[in-house]
Specification:
Structural class: alpha/beta
Distance between the termini: 35 Å
Low-confidence stretches: 35-40, 148-158, 231-246
Number of helices: 14
Strand order of the largest sheet: 1-2-3-6
Helix content: 40-55%
Order of helices and strands: EEHHHHEHHHEEEHHHHHEEHH
Number of strands: 8
Mean pLDDT: 79
Largest sheet: 4 strands, mixed
């Protein structure tokens, strides 16, 4: 986003809270170009520093450049729910096998030729205070409210339960396909399987018959993992800095994956994973 009125370039990383600022700014200072009217494509809305530098070199040199940052772990949790990965795979599967591009892109978002170019960075974890400072810097006043992602907070706290639900729904689909293909009926009662002992008993007996009827390769892997280890005993923990952690055996691998693919952001903004 470029404002010629207030001489700034807003470099907007998805899932970092920037849409709140953008919508409020356009509503008060540029109402004819409200992003909710879908005038901008996702590519135009989320240009990185390199793209702004090459497309608008004169403005890039002169204008104030700012952006929002957020702990990479929380960015991935937000993406996991927002982009519907939660309906198709477990969170560890998403992080370890489907997040590399997101992390690498985030790590380079604010750099041009490996040089960090932001004049001001707003932390998602310090939203109100940093947004107040930004408004003072560019000479505007916005009526905004504290950014609280209450829907995602609920999702984080219930991530373990979501996994059981996904296994039940995936198994229900597999049972229907099995019945159509073989003509045989299995003693599957979806409502009773929210009692985990009943679900595990059914899967232990019939998973071998159903395995090839699950969707893709991730669903049978998830079921096998569930049968081996059951549900994690540790709930999601909400930290005061808005960082969320998943209590499961893959946690060290996930942390290592993020550290390997997003080192600059972690180091520059002193984000900590795993505490």
């Amino acid at each position: 986003m470029i404002s010629d009125k207030h001489n700034f370039i807003f470099i907007h990383v998805a899932r970092t809270g920037g849409s709140v600022f953008e919508q409020e700014y356009r509503k008060h200072y540029d109402p004819k170009n409200d992003p909710r009217a879908e005038r901008l494509s996702p590519d135009e809305k989320h240009l990185n520093a390199e793209a702004y530098s090459s497309r608008y070199p004169a403005k890039f040199e002169r204008y104030l450049k700012f952006g929002f940052v957020r702990n990479p772990y929380s960015v991935l949790v937000s993406s996991y729910f927002r982009d519907q990965y939660a309906t198709r795979m477990t969170f560890p599967d998403f992080v370890l096998n489907h997040s590399t591009h997101t992390l690498l892109a985030y790590d380079d978002y604010f750099r041009v030729n490996d040089e960090y170019i932001l004049d001001f960075a707003l932390r998602y974890e310090n939203y109100d205070k940093d947004l107040t400072r930004l408004c003072d810097l560019i000479g505007i006043k916005l009526r905004y409210r504290k950014h609280v992602d209450s829907v995602l907070k609920t999702n984080y706290q219930n991530m373990n339960e979501h996994r059981t639900k996904r296994i039940i729904e995936a198994t229900s689909h597999a049972v229907r396909k099995y019945t159509v293909r073989t003509g045989k009926k299995l003693p599957f009662n979806q409502s009773q399987f929210y009692d985990e002992s009943a679900l595990k008993s059914f899967l232990a007996q019939y998973f071998g018959d159903l395995e090839k009827f699950y969707l893709g390769s991730h669903q049978p892997r998830d079921v096998e993992d569930y049968l081996k280890r059951g549900m994690p005993k540790t709930k999601i923990i909400r930290k005061t800095d808005y960082t969320y952690y998943y209590g499961c055996e893959e946690k060290p691998k996930m942390i290592s994956h993020i550290e390997r693919h997003c080192p600059f952001i972690l180091d520059k903004f002193e984000y900590v994973l795993g505490q």
